[in-house]
UniProtKB/TrEMBL annotation:
It comes from Penicillium salamii. This is Thioredoxin domain-containing protein. The keyword Protein biosynthesis applies. Keywords: Cytoplasm, Protein biosynthesis. PANTHER family: PEPTIDE CHAIN RELEASE FACTOR SUBUNIT 1. NCBIfam families: aRF1_eRF1 (TIGR03676). SMART domains: eRF1_1 (SM01194). GO terms for molecular function: translation release factor activity. Residues 460-596 form the Thioredoxin domain. SUPFAM superfamilies: L30e-like, N-terminal domain of eukaryotic peptide chain release factor subunit 1, ERF1, Thioredoxin-like, Translational machinery components. The keyword Protein transport does not apply.
Length: 597
């Protein structure tokens, strides 16, 4: 089976990746002609390209310069090895870049890149040079979006599309409509009525054909729609109730043309040129305008800055991530003296001026760097794990420039209000607060929708929260009086217990038990529920249970659960781990650690 087509957001991310790749490849330089650029179009043969490379290898063996000869032969060999990974050319073609480049430190480094473009690339290319040739990829980006055209007048209608510099006529339709004046034989009123009826039927027919041509599998297949014509038909169609609402929302321009048919199509393309070039700007302005509107309404459903945005991601609260396409932030994964992983995000200025970010707070020594890379590249790979949509924006529009300069180029529109000040008060340090109220920090009275404090009667209250990093001092089921909270024998995450034998289900169980402490009024609890249900199928080694703290508040009290959602993990009747306000990834990580210690 072929892979499902990517949605618009996934396609935009693929485009961003290609843009970043082009930028890196264009900056690369090598010695001699040892940098190979190979592009194989769709429906071409891998064997043909392999044969050509074999011939090139023989030719390159005659290069007089020993250093250049070895470099070129090495690059050709690497390219041949890359081609062996493919049995046939992918549907969108194949792009290969191989060779040795000179780094900024003056050292030689091998580059081997092969990938299938995000859309068909109808270019055949093989070049050995001192640089990589990316012109075909750049043209692919320019020809990204496809626009629909409806050229409609009293003589007929033309349906067409425009993608980059490729124009295609989809369908033509001729029509014979009565003019404003007849030859007599009927009253003027009757003639007018018949004329209006035929015009109405004509508009209805065009509306139906527009759906057939521009909607595929219930989705609009063009980025925008241009209506053109020499009379009022284009306006009648645009304002008609017969015109599909999905297409009406895609209309970006209505233009007057002097001709119909193909000549009118060409003129419409010319007149709509400026609008077509600004379509992405319009989409960008609309998205950032939505972000600014949430701020102006003080809804609390937005965040900005890398720290708050990452917190929103971890909570599953981020619905739309908005990120500047050229955000220069590095993501560091380090290990401190205790062997604990520490993740830091830095700008270039912070890397040179703030070395404390790389030092262990306990020892003052530099931490071991496990991995480092572009934060944007990590985000482009990981955003789906957090249930968010990722949108890249530029700084070329007024709104985009304001977002980059005023908000740091990163932010999110949230699913629900989150109190980041309270989250900051309880940031995940390596500290553990025991059950003493004197040592527990006071929580502010402001509401926090995620990780809501609970009281002994169910519901929420202004309370306190213990760190979830260390639970060794927390009383386990063996040291507290456990209550009867189950009525069903089913081990599923969505059962609704009330009064049954908790000891039998937990304390006397020899299995790994995952306990979800939740409440129906808690948004994050409802969001995390489907993920836990999925885990119950994925990990049959564990038993999953769910406790509503409104129904059985004593459980939260006895087990010292102070916030929800709280997920507790029991093994052989003892609590072995606990996480509060978790993400699906965090829950799955705990389950994996306990199943495969």
């Amino acid at each position: 089976m072929s892979a499902p087509p990517p949605n618009e957001a996934e396609k935009n991310i693929e485009i961003w990746k290609v843009k970043k790749l082009i930028k890196r490849l264009e900056a690369a330089r090598g010695n001699g002609t040892s940098m190979i650029s190979l592009i194989i179009p769709p429906k071409d043969q891998i064997s043909r390209a392999a044969k050509m490379l074999a011939e090139e290898y023989g030719t390159a063996s005659n290069i007089k310069s020993r250093v250049n000869r070895l470099s070129v032969l090495s690059a050709i060999t690497s390219t041949q090895q890359r081609l062996k990974l493919y049995n046939k050319v992918p549907p969108n073609g194949l792009v290969v870049y191989c060779g040795e480049i000179i780094t900024s430190e003056g050292k030689e480094r091998k580059i081997n890149i092969d990938f299938e473009p995000f859309k068909p690339i109808n270019t055949s290319l093989y070049l050995c040079d001192n640089k990589f040739h990316t012109e075909a990829l750049s043209e692919l980006l320019e020809a990204d979006q496809k626009f629909g055209f409806i050229v409609m007048d009293g003589n007929g209608t033309l349906f067409g599309t425009l993608s980059g510099n490729t124009r295609e006529i989809i369908q033509r339709l001729s029509v014979d409509l009565p003019k404003k004046h007849g030859r007599g034989g009927q009253s003027a009123l009757r003639f007018s009525r018949l004329r209006e009826e035929k015009r109405h039927n004509y508009v209805r027919k065009i509306a139906e054909l527009a759906v057939q041509n521009y909607i595929t599998n219930d989705k609009v297949n063009v980025a925008g729609l241009v209506l053109a014509g020499s009379a009022d038909f284009k306006n009648d169609l645009n304002q008609s109730d017969l015109f599909d609402g999905r297409l009406q929302a895609k209309v970006i321009k209505v233009v007057d043309v002097s001709y119909g048919g193909e000549n009118g199509f060409n003129q419409a393309i010319e007149l709509a040129g400026e609008t077509l070039s600004n379509v992405k700007f319009v989409q960008e302005k609309k998205l950032i305008g939505q972000y600014f509107q949430e701020i102006s309404q003080d809804s609390g459903r937005v965040c900005y800055g890398i720290e708050d945005t990452l917190k929103a991601l971890e909570l599953g609260a981020a619905e739309i991530l908005i990120v500047h396409e050229n955000l220069e932030i590095t993501r560091w994964v380090m290990k401190n003296s205790a062997g604990v992983e520490v993740i830091a995000h830095t700008t270039k200025a912070q890397e040179s001026n703030n070395r404390e970010l790389f030092q262990d707070k306990e020892t003052g020594l530099d931490m071991e760097v496990i991995d480092s890379g572009s934060f944007l590249e990590w985000l482009a790979e990981a955003y789906k794990d957090f249930g968010a949509n990722l949108e890249f924006v530029s700084d070329r529009s007024g709104e985009g420039n304001q977002f980059v300069k005023g908000f740091g180029g990163i932010g999110a529109i949230l699913r629900y209000k989150v109190n980041f000040e309270q989250l900051a008060d309880y940031s995940d340090d390596d500290e553990f607060y025991d059950e003493s109220e004197d040592e527990r920090p006071e929580a502010p009275a402001s509401s926090l929708l995620t990780a809501r404090p609970v009281d002994n009667k169910g519901g929420s209250r202004d309370g306190t929260k213990a760190s979830v990093k260390d639970n060794k001092n927390r009383p386990g089921p063996s040291s507290v009086k456990l209550l009867r909270v189950w009525t069903e024998d089913q081990d599923i995450p969505n059962n609704q217990p009330s009064k049954a034998d908790f000891d039998e289900k937990i304390c006397n169980s020899q299995d790994l038990v995952v306990l979800d402490c939740w409440a129906s009024w808690c948004g994050p609890c409802r969001a995390i529920g489907p993920h836990i249900e999925a885990f119950s199928t994925t990990y049959p080694q564990a038993k999953f249970h769910k406790v509503d703290i409104d129904e059985v508040p004593e459980v939260a009290k006895e087990l010292a659960f102070r916030t929800i959602p709280t997920i507790a993990f029991f093994n052989n009747g003892e609590m072995v781990d606990i996480t509060t306000g978790p993400t699906p990834r965090g829950i799955e990580g705990c389950i994996k650690d306990l199943i495969e210690p």
